[in-house]
Amino acid sequence: MILNTTARYSKELTTTNKTISMMKTTVGIIGLGKMGGNLALQAIEKGYTIIAMSKHHKQDLEQQHLVQVKNAKDLVTQLSSPRIVLLLLPSGKTVDEMIEEIVPLLNAGDVLADCGNCYWGDYIRRYNRIKDSGIHYIDCGTSGALMVPETAPVL
User: Fold this and answer.
1) pTM (2 decimals)?
2) Which of 18, 90, 115, 152 is most buried, most CB within 10 Å of its CB?
3) Domains in the chain, please, with CATH?
4) Is the pLDDT of residue 14 over 50?
5) Do residues 118 and 59 touch, judged by C-beta distance below 8 A?
């Protein structure tokens, strides 16, 4: 397979024998700090719908067509299956508490990606906690490149 990389924000992938249109979908983001907020803005700019939850309401992001909800149940309810939920939270207890809250609301086949910068042993412990649920848990650290909104995300 040869990918067409000439257009930075191409909406199509070109292979040796066909073109595949990339599907835009709705994604849930939990945590709208600098990294989560900037990732949400970049995704919206590229045609994704973002449903987000944060400790503090972000009026400036809502003006960018981001839908903010107050709790994990509302976030999960507004996502279509299979759901994609990205956690952009400070490492440690906050991540563990959110996983405990959201896992019972998700179904087998849904994706939960921890995009923070946690200790690798915590990822393994969390994976072992939810692997039998059928939820796809992804350890996906995020580079500081998201600190600048115009910079492409590095997940």
Assistant:
1) 0.78
2) 115
3) 24-147 (3.40.50.720)
4) no
5) no
